[in-house]
Amino acid sequence: MEEDGANHRPSPSYSYGGGGFLSGLCAAALRRKPLSAHAAHAASGEGLVRQLGVFDLVLLGIGASIGAGIFVITGTVARDAGPGVTISFVLAGAACVLNALCYAELASRFPAVVGGAYLYTYAAFNELTAFLVFTQLMLDYHIGAASIARSLASYFVQFLELIPFLKGHIPTWIGHGEEFFGGVVSVNILAPVLLIILTAILCYGVKESSAVNTFMTTLKIVIVIVVVCAGVFEVDVSNWSPFMPNGFKSVVTGATVVFFAYVGFDAVANSAEEAKTPQRDLPIGILGSLLACVILYVAVCLVITGMVPYTLLGEDAPLAEAFAAKGLKFVTVLISIGAVAGLTTTLLVGLYVQSRLYLGLGRDGLLPSTFSKIHPTRHTPLHSQIWVGCVAAVLAGLFNVHELSHILSVGTLTGYSVVSACVITLRWNDKATSRHHSLGSMSIWQEGVLCLIIIALCGFVAGLCYRFSYATAFMVIAFLIAVVAGFALQFRQVSAFLWASTN
């Protein structure tokens, strides 16, 4: 692997296949980044400083996943699913755990270099696919950062309007946004200011930005726990009956909606180069943050559906309205503070992840080398961080990006799907690694057949859930799990016996 300043381009042995411009372009688009390239960079001693422990990584994932939505989406989905929204969050969490396991495995394979989904795709498929994944991620992150910044600005304006002499006197262009040219331009001054502040914190150092995230995330978690504890004393168990008033179908539909409430655990994978013990801590950070989010979401769901009948939940602020109906006005203030803390951490982690992705592409030469430069004393990708902050500030300050936020779910699902495919591809290409990570001593084709059987059974069970009652579906699920587990154990025993007899 050759190095040119901060660039780490692939060596000619696998970069270009010779010939004309078109053949060289095709060869460049289809090349893969070998594992030796990652190992060479890790051994070079260049890069970011390892300052994040396992606790920092868990809070990083929680900070990225739980925003203001925990106080809103729980009640919104409960209006259709009823108290069964609890099961919706459990199902969505279980689906995310499967994808989190893919991230955890890949993080343990590439523990020393930033890049996340882009890096995994580059190693598993080719440069073109990796760049397309990066483009999709950047579209999501840039629009998402601008959208969150405008929401955070609106919350700050609401707090300022609690001051009597400011109420009704704050111009709309400061926080809520004032539209010009028929709505094409929507000026918001406060959102770019907030982005500049957070960008400055991230540029100052990862230790300092991690401290801010730790404080805000801890505050958010404490507020959620206080809200849950206060609501427990107002729960009427009769509100949980019927538990699924619209059937299991509405619960499954709710799970598809709340799935995106868990998005963010993948941010931990982009901190590989700054984790103290990445091979051990990254999987713990990814799975630990996701499980913590599942517990918090389920607790809020149980409280909000137990406090008031699900049919009476509001649309905009269901949790706050539920506590206000019980006369607990102070809890609504806590919810507002928690929403601000949640949006702040989500925005902070989003900007952090973007800069690390730009850093990875700058090193690979797919972007100008300025993106690969690291500050000599602050040990942060200064140019990349300033760039992502400026892009988000321009979008948030001039455009109402909330109208584009609906496309973010497509990018998220695409990224998760590609990462899952990377696990299969890397296991297939690297038999030694696949033997280490696979189920016991099962061969690759046995694992592949088993995965296809499980996928087919999942589709079959999903059809049962819609056609018959959920009780029947659960019985079938239990039976199929037992059958699949029996086949898996049999495969493992036979494979282990054959392996022992041939060695």
Order of helices and strands: HHHHHHHHEEHHHHHHHHHHH
The count of β-strands is 2
Please, what is the CATH homologous superfamily of the largest domain? Amino acid/polyamine transporter I
Number of helices: 19
Structural class: mainly alpha
In the CATH classification, which architecture of the largest domain applies?
Up-down Bundle
- Give the N-terminus to C-terminus distance in angstroms: 37 Å
Write the layout of secondary structure elements.
Elements lengths: L11 H4 L5 H10 L4 H10 L9 H12 L7 H9 L3 H25 L6 H9 L2 H34 L17 E3 L4 E3 L2 H15 L1 H27 L14 H12 L19 H30 L10 H8 L3 H36 L17 H17 L9 H22 L1 H7 L6 H24 L2 H33 L1
Antiparallel strand pairs: 1-2
InterPro entries: AA/rel_permease1
Main location: membrane
Membrane topology: Multi-pass membrane protein
Summarize the structure.
The chain is 68% helix and 1% strand.
Describe the structure.
GO terms for molecular function: amino acid transmembrane transporter activity. Its main location: membrane. It is found in: Membrane. It is a single chain. By secondary structure, the protein is mostly helical. It folds into 2 domains: 12-437, Amino acid/polyamine transporter I (Up-down Bundle); 438-503. It contains 19 helices and 2 strands. The protein has helices spanning 12-15, 21-30, 35-44, 54-65, 73-81, 85-109, 116-124, 127-160, 190-204, 206-232, 247-258, 278-307, 318-325, 329-364, 382-398, 408-429, 431-437, 444-467, 470-502; strands spanning 178-180, 185-187. It has a two-stranded antiparallel sheet. Strand 1 and strand 2 form a beta hairpin. The protein is globular. The two termini are 37 Å apart. Residues 1-18 and 432-440 have low confidence and may be disordered.
